[in-house]
Design a protein that fits this description.
Bound molecules: ligand G3I
Shape: globular
Structural class: alpha/beta
Distance between the termini: 6 Å
Strand order of the largest sheet: 1-2-3-4-5-6-8-9
Helix content: 25-40%
Largest sheet: 8 strands, parallel, barrel
Number of helices: 12
Strand content: 15-25%
């Protein structure tokens, strides 16, 4: 693509620049859809629902489904030709309300009851958006993150059902919409130990014919990690299983997680420049692997809304600033 004067009024459309490569997505909350409307229409051709499809939000009580926020986002995405990614059906952490784990009499749910609830939830949610949501993060973050020898995170699903809860979730999702693509979504799988554990699980899925089509490499990045070599290893490892690769939650904080120096240093020109260089390097890798990359989705759209910010802590992780204007990082992704 021809380099243009960055001072020029013409801002290229990211989705058009990447037309021959992969869709460009953004994770969106319903409260932001109007404010981001023009930005989304111009630059993005895929949408993940950041929170509206999560179990506590869409199904907070046993007979209580709240579809309205997800319906609004799905309608917006459909009417603007955006491919929709459903996030997420089964997640041990903030992804499941407490009631799900207990029987009516207050005792812990049995394996049968929890499987029945999972199936009912998945059939209802996937069924409602059948033909609209192209792909689902069926299970999110099930692999143990620390190097303690355990394969799976030790939560209620594992304790009550056993490790086959993951396979069951994929089977339930496939029953509900046989045409939907089904993904396993995970963080920090660029690093060798967790990558190895994830590979072991996915190989087993392949051998047993579990319906799975792709993996989400979340990609919550910083200026230094993961290395480009680790990123390549992850893409190649999972693509070798025949899985599609979704860069599913991309953001690039200019300060490492839990670093509080941002509070007095702020966003310096040097950090903006380093972020631009790093984003440019990452997208160069993504373009190289375009044959296996299903899409690249940012975990937000502009710096004014990100899970990484808490109170006065700021991280400035995206291509667009608080006023939805392109940052230096935008130009290094859009012009290559
Ligand atoms: O909507 C309520 C609001 O009414 C209330 O005043 C406020 C008080 O804390 O909370 C608001 O809800 C929060 C919600 O985000 C909306 O901002 C929840 O407390 C908070 O837990 C929720 O956090 C989300 C988190 O997942 C847990 O579901 C983040 O937005 C979301 O970005 C984050 O996304 C996860 C992915 O699903 C999985 N991978 C990691 C990623 C980042 O943690």
């Amino acid at each position: 693509m021809k380099k243009e004067d960055k001072g020029c009024c013409t801002i290229p459309s990211l989705k058009e620049v990447y037309q021959a490569y992969f869709p460009i997505g953004a994770a969106i909350e319903v409260v932001n859809v109007e404010r981001y409307s023009d930005l989304l229409k111009k630059h993005f051709n895929a949408m993940t629902l950041e929170n509206s499809l999560k179990w506590p939000n869409i199904h907070p009580g046993k007979d209580d489904y709240r579809f309205e926020p997800a319906d609004r986002l799905v309608d917006f995405a459909m009417s603007h030709g955006m491919r929709i990614h459903g996030h997420t059906l089964v997640w041990y952490a903030m992804g499941t309300p407490e009631w799900v784990y207990y029987a009516e009499d207050g005792a812990m749910a049995s394996r049968e009851l929890l499987l029945e609830r999972m199936q009912e939830h998945i059939h209802t949610v996937v069924g409602r958006y059948k033909g609209k949501v192209a792909a689902w993060d069926v299970v999110n973050e099930a692999i143990e993150n620390t190097d303690n020898g355990r394969q799976y995170h030790d939560g209620e699903y594992l304790q009550i059902i056993g490790p086959d809860y993951i396979k069951k979730a994929f089977q339930f999702a496939h029953e509900a919409d046989p045409d939907a693509l089904l993904f396993y979504n995970e963080y920090q799988i660029e690093f060798s130990i967790k990558r190895g554990k994830t590979l072991r699980m996915l190989k087993e899925f392949r051998e047993e014919g579990i319906p799975i089509h792709g993996i989400g490499i979340q990609s919550h990045e910083t200026l230094d990690v993961p290395s480009l070599g680790e990123l390549r290893d992850a893409i190649e490892t999972f693509a070798a299983l025949g899985l599609k690769i979704h860069i599913s939650e991309l953001d690039l904080s200019v300060y490492p997680y839990r670093d509080t120096t941002c509070l007095y240093k702020g966003l310096t020109p040097e950090l903006l420049e380093r972020q631009a260089v790093r984003y440019g390097e990452l997208f160069k890798v993504f373009r190289e692997y375009r044959d296996v990359i299903y899409g690249v989705t940012f975990w937000g759209a502009a710096d004014d809304h990100t899970w990484l910010d808490h109170g006065i802590r700021r991280t400035w992780p995206f291509l667009f600033d608080d006023d939805l204007k392109p940052k230096p990082a935008f130009w290094s992704v859009a012009q290559f």
